Amino acid sequence: MIDHRHIGYRQKPFEVEVEKGRLRLFAKAIGETDPVYSDEAAARAAGHPSLPVPPTFFFCLEMERADPYDWFAELGIPLGQVLHGEQSFTYHRLAHAGETLTFSAELIDIYEKKNGALQFLVQRNHVTDAAGAPVADFDRTIVIRWA
């Protein structure tokens, strides 16, 4: 079991630049047909400074950490027993290709179900721009199967 004293654990923040090519590939992968997400001219014609970041792409960017699972090892989370529980997003503004975003993550809750057979860890990620202004927040819940 992961000790509840780990609530408040923070990962070291990191920066990532949003690249146009990755946005285009993501749009294609999710079946996005609106050209604003893949064509720079269409994005600019729609009033964007560059290609906009699709809503769930923040999760992909967060995985750009040098080792996105280092916190599993630090807290003793057995990767082979982890399931994806859920994720939710709060958007403060659109992000666009060319921006450098900072991601900082904090473990905000730990709880159990089924008499401890399942443990839920909730991590909140804050995404800010180069000026430190909020862009998005997203929570992800992982489930650890202990039995």
**Level-2 CATH architecture:** Roll
Helical segment count? 4
- CATH fold node name: Thiol Ester Dehydrase, Chain A
CATH superfamily: Hotdog Thioesterase
Shape: elongated
**How would you state the average pLDDT, rounded?**
95
Detail the poorly predicted runs: none
User: What pattern of helices and strands is seen along the backbone?
Assistant: EHHHHEEEE
CATH classification, class level: Alpha Beta
Portion of residues in beta strands equals 25-35%
Can you summarize the main beta sheet? 5 strands, antiparallel
Number of domains: 1
Q: Tell me the Rg in angstroms.
A: 17 Å
Strand runs, count: 5
Secondary-structure map:
Blueprint: E1 14-17, H1 20-29, H2 40-45, H3 57-62, H4 70-75, E2 82-91, E3 100-113, E4 118-128, E5 134-145
Antiparallel strand pairs: 1-3, 2-5, 3-4, 4-5
Describe this structure in words.
It is a single chain. With 147 residues, the protein is an alpha+beta fold. The protein has a single domain, classed as Thiol Ester Dehydrase, Chain A. The protein contains four helices and five strands. A five-stranded antiparallel β-sheet has the order 1-3-4-5-2. Strand 3 and strand 4 form a beta hairpin. The termini are close together.
